[in-house]
Each structure stands twice: as structure tokens, then as C-alpha cells.
Amino acid sequence: MNILFGIHKPDSGYLKVFGTEVSFKSPLDAIENNIGMVHQHFMLIDDFTVLENVILGDEITKSKGLSIDFKKAGIVLNEIIDKYDLGLDVNRLISEISIGQQQKVEILKLLYRRSEILIFDEPTAVLSPVEVEHFFKIINSFKADGKTIIFITHKLNEVKHISDRVSVLRKSKLVYESDNSNELNISDLSKAIVGDINDIQNSEKRNASVKNVEALKLDDISLTVNEVKILNSLDLTLMKGEIHGICGVEGNGQSELVDVIYGLQKNFEGNYKKLIPGGISLVPDDRKRKGFIKEFNIGENISLKGANLNFLPSKKINKISEKIISDNDVRVSDLESPMSELSGGNQQKVIFARETDSGTDSETDSENNILILVHPTRGVDINATAFIHSKIISQRNEGKAVLLISSDLDELISLSDRLSVLYKGEILKTFNRDEFSRFIKSDSEIEPETDPEFLLMLGKLMTGINDK
Amino acid sequence: MDLITSVISLGFVAQVLRLMTPFYLGASAANFSERGGVINISVEGFMNLSAFSFAVISILTGNITAGFILAVLINLLFSVVFGYFTVSLKINQIVTGVGFNLFIAGLTKFLLVYIFSSSSNTPRFEGLPEFTLFSSIPFFGLFLTDYITLFCFLLIFISAYILFKTRFGLRLRSAGENPAAGESLGIKIRNYRYYGILICGFLSSLAGIWMASNQNSYSDGMIAGRGYIALAAMIIGKWKPVNIFFACLMFSAFEAFEISLQITGSDIPSQLIQMLPYFITILVLIGFIGKTKPPAADGVPY
Amino acid sequence: MISKKNLINLISVTLSVLITVLIVFVFLLILGKDPFEIFGMIFSEVFADGYGIGQTLFKATPLIFISCGLAVCFHASLFNIGAEGQLNAGSFVIALTALKLDFLPVPIVILISLIFGFIVSGFFGIIPAYIKIKKDVSEVITTIMMNFVILALVNFFLLDFFAVESTMRTEKINEDLMFLKISDVLPFFDGSTLNSSFILAILAAVLTYLFIYKTGFGYKLRSVGFNELASKYLGIRTNGVILISFFIGAGITAFAGMNYIFGYKGFYEFGFSNNIGFTAIAVTLLAKNNPIGIIFSSLLFAILDYGGLSVNQLIPKELMLVVQGIIILSLLAVDKIVSNYFKEKLI
Asked: How far is C62 from chain B (nearest CA, A)?
């Protein structure tokens, strides 16, 4: 996509737009060729108004060309907003509007630049189903206007719902191409996406006994940040020896919930009780920013956790590194390489090792009995994913209380003993495993096929629609 | 009694407004740089450099105009090098700023001794011509006495207009807020960061020139932290031209007060008066403002 | 074994010193001076005899102390520009304590003086750290402001309460408190003011090295310096680490006064530091924040400083300030270019 949008240049091959061969040096060239892109992470400036964000780089100026004609620009934008029913106020700051509205600002940017080819990178990941529906309506009206839309997603239902044609990319290769979505065979498509599933190792077997001991109890927890209620009378109990999954659209209080449990956020109301000894381990969501110190090597990153005023000679550090590498099959060229030189999967394995068997001296190790995992396999290759999944189960089997927050529903359903739905800082409903495990049609713990009806129910809950 | 009468006089207010010139020029200079995403703590050094080159070149050539133009050009040249370090090479902006400050301080000290065989100051020279248009107008005639001060007051409106009403300002601010977003819309972020630094170099040169002209000589250490106070004023003014004006007003009021104290021969020890503006800055930073929010990508190399 | 990172550091430091020499050569030629004559005089002044070497080591002593303090701060990503003020406050208190407590046994007086100096300097490091934590205001601005405030305060207390009439200095401390002169043991250094502070400075550098690179707190400190957010999620109390690092880092700068007070003059004099707190920034950067490297970069700066005195008839000794400035700037540029080059070549 970055090649299409002129951010990167191809090493070889050519690009044709509307029949003419083009070569993009910068995004500007792409824009001039009527190609526009909505990035997965929005390219918006929080401190600018909607109008300023949209016109930036292509400003409508007064006759002398120096100052911006805000009035005229406002009229132009409002015309587009009305035409496609975007419902935006051009004078609001980006920081004041919702994620869904921000996406519409991104779309408005493309329309303002008369883009004919619109690229969307995972556009629905941040949207609630109601917003998704509205988004699809907008997309369809573009289609009716004769625009071309490239829609990148990993959600098969959406592919089926909206696409005219589907292409599957795997490992930088085009592995599948269809002509008409009506002939789409979902299982063919999944196979194309997953590839050869045989090389996945079989995962740890789930041990049946669940100890009935409460590890952590959150009672009526509320949290308000900058006058916005993030957590709303939230109740949550974590038992020893269970994996408690949390599903929900991102931005419904997940990271704040983690901060409260982990002790980084103390300004909450309500009761928080830790009922078992030992500390809390955390595999945070944003690995690169929160997970490790990229300048430190493996052993140093492991030692950081709970390092006291000890003397830590390099020999000791290297021993720790060696143990982690051999125990977890971490691929690394040099024992002392900084973490930044490891692949994402290997980095995540190191973090996992640190937070679980914690690799430090066994005698000083005051066992952490509570484990919080946030998107543990995001951006991680398939082998490392399998490894991490089996580790999660073995942690549970050892009797730890595991809180699993993820946006990957398959992962949640295959691993969780209980599954709670988080919506607007509130737990709407909690399912026991026997309520949803019967929906799992395949035995494999890795890529289970989940009953679409159950998924639909979950999806509704995640957007606040509670049927029962 | 003397002190009170001197402070509540019209002349005192005019003094405050006049002394504000280097603060506001310095703060605006830093603001343009930071709005473009580059922290420039060498405003102090840049003011020092231009005060020095203006005085020295004016004295050596006997031509004030040559001194003025060359002082500005030298500052712009140093700004380009500063930009090369911070924008092109992406070196830590604060470390670069400290490096420039040390280098400029050393260079001016050395050249001062080398050229004038004095480690303290240059000979006296005729400063910039006076601005006489308003001199008969009461009050305004008291502080709008030179072109730079006049420009400084216009700058409040000019900088607000440039930053918030023009295409250039919008793009410059995008470089300071979210360079990736600007780049995705085809804006050459690095160029804009250079422009911000160059404007910073230009405005800080005016501040330095005003200082030397006002004192009719250059003396070692004459900037005396005004560049840093200007940075503090920019922070207190939350990167907004009009707010910065009021912050600068506060600092120049302290300076005018200090001068009044000295003239009226007060009992307060002089060291304590001298440290007042710095002390107040710290107090203000500790207590009287909430968390300040710089441009989101301020200080982040791109 | 030398690690890849250290090798790159060594290359860039050497290159930048060479480039500095080149720039200064050209600069001198433009001014119509003979660079070989000037550099020759510097080195012959320093290395001609034990006196020259001794004086150079004497000048390096305070630089080593201050730079070690700065290294602690810099490793925690705290850009402390306030060493000039911090070290003056601490040195002043060292002299005062030694004056007021001289009825106690000698080692105890020295120890208490140094501890008090450390605490006072450290206290002035806590203030910018606190403002950084609570108000998110960069320590750069506050430490600069603190310099002006501290120097004015020291000047005020000194002149109004403690100074010897019509001077800018305190009274002389008891002769028994004075440190051993190295020349008393090694006649080679005859006449030089080199004293046992130098040995303590080397010791301080080694201890600071072990503290930063080998202790658990050192790891935490560097971790906060590299990535504060990740450190928080690693369970490190980042605010505490910032406060303590700033306290220790600023505290060490007080020992700069040890060399002057116990080793040389026997009193605190206003202006003794002569901007050494800023020079130390350059020394620390040149050493890439490594306390062992600091010993060597301090020596280099001391050579320039002491040797610079000898060329004063030919060219103002302030030339050395220009040289120091060029060293920093060329180091910054060369460092970036070299590390970019190696990134492309080796990885």
C-alpha cells in the first residue's frame, strides 16, 4: 500500500493508474493521480480543527495566495459532508471528536482531494458495528459514484459483505484472487489466508480442574479521566487457575482497566482487592513502547523486573540470557544483542518469559500469581503465537489467575475459561466456558471455527446491544 | 516612598514596554522554531551572537547598516547549521542547543579579546537611529523610540496572523504537531522545520541587535539569560503569541522594577534583586500554571 | 573484548577530535597564526616536566567529579545544565562546614563537610526534578534558571555573612584539614598543586561506572532514561528514580570544591568555578556518558585549559573555549554520521 501511495518506491515492476504508467516519488504524486489512503493509524493533528486537517497541503487561499480563505473552505467542505451524510462539524478540534468521526475526517480528506481510488487499511478495527454499518453505507455511495475502493481487512464477514472482488496476500505474495463475492467460498479463503496449517505444533492440553479460589476482586470500580467516565461501576473477579477473557471494541476502557489492576492508575473509586499473595505480571499491549527497553539485551531486560540494589555483573546477565534463549526457543544472533535486533515474535517470547517463569534466581523469586495479558499475539508470527498460546494454558494449569484482553475473538474463545464483554467501561455479560465451548466446532486450540451465531451475539454485546 | 512613586509613574510603564523588546523577540523566535517541532534553546546564544556581530561590525566598518545586515546574515547562517544538525542529521535538539550556546559563548569571548584586547566589552558606538515619528505623542513616544521596538509590537499581530491564518503557518504547525500527517499530504516537513529555525534565527538576531544598540556597546555576558527567560515566557504563554506577550510583560516588569530599586537606592540586597526574574520563573513553573502542552511533535526528530 | 557499540563510540570520538584539530588549524591559519607553533607550545607546556603534568591533572580533578555527576543525570535522560550552580552551592557549604566544625577530629570534619556539600548540591537537583515530574516542564529550562538563582544566593550569603572583609572568599580552614600534596610523596610533581583529590576523583569515576552499569539501581536509571513508559510498565517507580538520580548527580558536583578547598586554597572563593560546570557538559558528552571515558576527556580538556595559558601572548587563551565548542559540535555530527554508517553497513 505504501508503494501505491508513494511512500515507498518499488525495487522493480511498474504501476499503472487508469491505464497510464506512473512512478510516485512522494504521496503528493499519488494524490495528484487521484489516489487517497486512510491509514490504520489516523494521520490527523489533534490540535487542529476538522477544517484545518482537511485542507492542509491543499489550502484554499484568498486572492493573494497568502492567507487561507476559511469561509470558502468551510462552504466546500460542508457541501461534501452533506452529499455523503458524514455529519461533521468542520470547526471542532480533532481531540474533541470520536474515533468514528475522526475516520470520517480522513474520508473527507480524500473526497476534498477528488480521490477516485480510495485505499482503506483496516478501517473497521476501531469502529462499533453501528458505525461499521454507516461506514459501509458511505462506501457503497462511493461505489455508486464510480469510485474504486481498496479495502484491506482480516475480517472475513466484512469481506463477504462489501467486496466485489477479493485478493489474498500472504508472505508478500498474491495467493488468491476471486472475481465475484457471490462465488466466494469462505473456507477456501481462510485456507488461502492461513496457509499450510499442518506445521503448527499441537498445543498444551487444558487441565480440567479449576480451583475455586478468588485471586482478585474488583468491585464497583469507576474511573474518570479528564471528565470522561472511562470505567463505569465495573465488577470483575479473577479466579486462580482460570483464564478470564475480556472482549470488546478497543477503547472501551481496556488499557485503563489494566492500569488500575496493575497499580499505575490510582485515582479510581470502588473496591480493589487482591486476595492471594505475590505480585502481578503484565504483558502490555504496545510491545515496543511499553514492553521492554530496546537498548538493553535479553538478560538485562529480564533482570530489570524487580531488580534491587544488587550487583549485576555481565556474567550473571549473560547466564540469564542463555537460559531464556534455550527455554523459549528465542532466535538471536548474539547473546548480547539489544532487544531491538530481535523479531517481534522473539521479543514477545522474552517478555512472556520475564512475566511468567520470570527467569530470575528461583530463591529470590516471589512468585507472581496473577498474569495480565493484553493482545499477547498481536503482530507475532504463527509459530510464536502457537508457542505463546500453549504457554498461556500451562500458566493456567499451574494455578495462576490469567486475565486475557484481546481483540482476536478466536484467541479469546479458544483459550478462555470465562469470557466477559467490556463495553463503555462496564462488564455487560460474562459467559462460562461451557456456554461457548460447544460452539467451537474444531478440536484444534489454534484456529477454531466459531459458531457464527455466537459471534453475532458477542458482536452485538460488544456494541452495547443486550438482547436478553 | 520614592520607590512607589517611581513604579506607578507613566514612565515606568513605558520602561516596562520598552524593556520587553528582547524578551518578546526571543520568545517569538523560539516559538516559530517550536511550532515547527524544533526546540531551540540556543536562542540565548543566537541573541549573544547577533549582539556581538552587530556591535563589532558596526565599530569596525563605521557603518550601522552593514552591521545590522551582516549580523542578521550571520545569524541566518548559524541557523542553517543548526537546522542541519537538528533536522537533517536528527541530532538531539537540546544537546545541539547547548553545544551551540557553548560554542557561541566561546567564540564571542575569544574574538572580543582578539579584536579589542578586552575581555569585558567593546568600545562604545552609535546605536540604531531613533524612531522619531511618535516622539511628540505622549506615552507612546516614551517607548516606541526605535524601529525594532515598533516591529516587536507589530510582531504580536504578525506572528498570530502567520501562525493561524496563513497557509505557511498551517503547514509549519503541522510539522510541529504531527509531521507524518503533514508528509502524507505531500508537505515537505523538513523544509518547514528549516523555515521555522530560520525565522527563529532572524527574530533572535533582532533581539541581540536591540540589546547592543540599546547599550551602545557589546559586553561579555550582556544577554545574561534573557534568551532563557524568553523560552520560559514562551512556555508560560503556552506557545500563543498574545499570551507570550503578557508573559514577557511580566518579566520586563521585574527588570524595570529592579532598575527602579537600584536608582532609588533601596535596602534590598542587589544580588536578590538580580535573581528575581529567574526565581519568579521557577515559582511560576512550579505553581502558577497548570501542565503546559507544547506542540505534540516538539523536539521529536523527523 | 570490545563490544560493537564501544567500538563505534571509540571511532566517532577519535574522528571528532581529529576533525576539531583540523578546523582549529584552518581557523588559526585564517587568523594568520602558525598552528604548529601554538599546538607545540601547548604540549610542551604540559608535558615538559612533572610540574606541567601535575598542574594538568590538578585541573582535570574537578572536571572528573562534575562530569561523573552529569553522567548519572544524562543516563537517566535528565539534561542537567545546572551543574555550575549546584557545585557552587555545595562547595560553599563544604568550606563553611569545615570552618565551623574544626573542633572535631580531622577525618570526621572532612567527611561531614563532604556529606553536607553533597546534600546541598543534591537538594538543588531535586527542585528541577520535582518540577519535571509534577509540571512536565523540561529540566533544561529550570536548571538554567536555578544557576542564576543559586549563584545570586551564594553571593548574597557569602558577602553579607561569611566573607573576609573586601574579598569574595571565606576564611581559611584549619591547616590540619588540608589534603596531602602529591609532590610531598612523589618529588616528580614538585611545585604543582596536585593533591589527593585527584585519586579520589579517579575512585569516584570507577564507583560511578559500577553504579551506572552494574547495580540494579543503575539499570533502572538507564531504563528510565531509555524509555520511561516501558519502565513504568516494568514496575519501576520512575518518578522516584528521576528524583534520586538528579539528587545523586547534582550531589556529586559538590566534590569539585574539594580539590580547591582541601587541596589548594583552603577557602571557598566566589567565581572559583569559572564556568567549569558548563565545560563538564562537553567533557561528559565527549566521553559518551561513560565515567571511565570521562577520566580521559577530562584530561584532554585539562591539557587545553592549562596549555592554553602558555599561548596567551600569541593568541588569547579564550581560543580554548572555541576549541571546546567545536569539539562538542563536531562530536554530535560525527557521532550521528558514524552510527548511521554502521547501521547501514553492519545490520
From this structure: 19
Instruction: Compare CB distances from A312 to C216, C227, C232 and report the shortest one's residue.
Output: C216
Q: What would the grid cell of residue A417 be? A: 475459561
Which site among A260, A265, A280, A296 would you substitute to test the C interface, given the most C Cβ atoms closer than 10 Å to its Cβ? A296
The 10s digit of each residue's pLDDT in C251-261 is 999 999 999 99
Helical ranges in chain B per DSSP H = 2-7, 10-35, 43-61, 64-83, 93-116, 140-143, 147-165, 167-177, 179-184, 189-215, 226-236, 241-264, 270-283
Residue A10 belongs to a domain: no
| Neighbour count for residue C201 (Cβ, 10 Å) | 27
Pair A94, A187 in one domain? yes
Asked whether residue A340 is assigned to any structural domain, the reply reads yes
Tell me if residue A37 falls in helix, strand or coil. Answer: strand
Looking at the structure of chain B, the number of domains it has is 1
Q: How high does pLDDT run on average in chain B? A: 89
DSSP letter for C172, please: P
Return the pLDDT at B284.
79
Q: In this structure, what CATH number is given to the domain that contains residue B48?
A: 1.10.3470
**Cell numbers placing C39:** 599546538
Listed residues A365, A387, A412: the one ending a domain: A365
pLDDT digits (tens, 9 = 90+) for C66-86: 999 999 999 999 999 999 999
Strand A117-121: give its sheet, edge to edge. A35-38, A117-121, A148-152
Determine the 3-state secondary structure of A228 from DSSP: strand
**In chain B, which residue's Cα lies nearest the Cα of C283?**
B99
For chain C, list the domains and their CATH numbers: 34-314 (1.10.3470)
Per the structure, the complete domain to which residue A264 belongs is given by 197-279+367-468
pLDDT at A186 over 70: no
Q: Are β-strands A268-274 and A243-247 bridged in parallel, bridged antiparallel, or unpaired?
A: unpaired
Handedness of CA C288, C291, C293, C299 (dihedral sign): positive
For residues B78, B84, B85 and B89, what is the CA-based torsion angle, rounded to 10 degrees?
A: -170
Conformational region of residue B202, where left means phi above 0, alpha means psi within -120 to 50, and beta covers everything else = alpha
Work out how many domains chain A is built from and give that number: 3
Q: Are residues A379 and A348 in the same domain?
A: no
Contacts of B274 in chain C (CB under 8 A): 148, 152
Q: With beta carbons under 8 A apart, name residues in chain A contacting B187.
A: 56-57
Tell me whether B21 touches chain C (CB under 8 Å). no
Pull the grid cell for residue B236.
Answer: 508560560
Place of cell 492542509: A56
Task: Please tell me whether residues A43 and A167 are part of one structural domain.
Answer: yes
Within 8 A by CB and 6+ apart from B135, the residues are B141, B145
0.90 exceeded by the pTM? no
| Separation in Å, CA of B264 to nearest CA in chain C | 20
Cβ within 8 Å, pair B271-C332: no
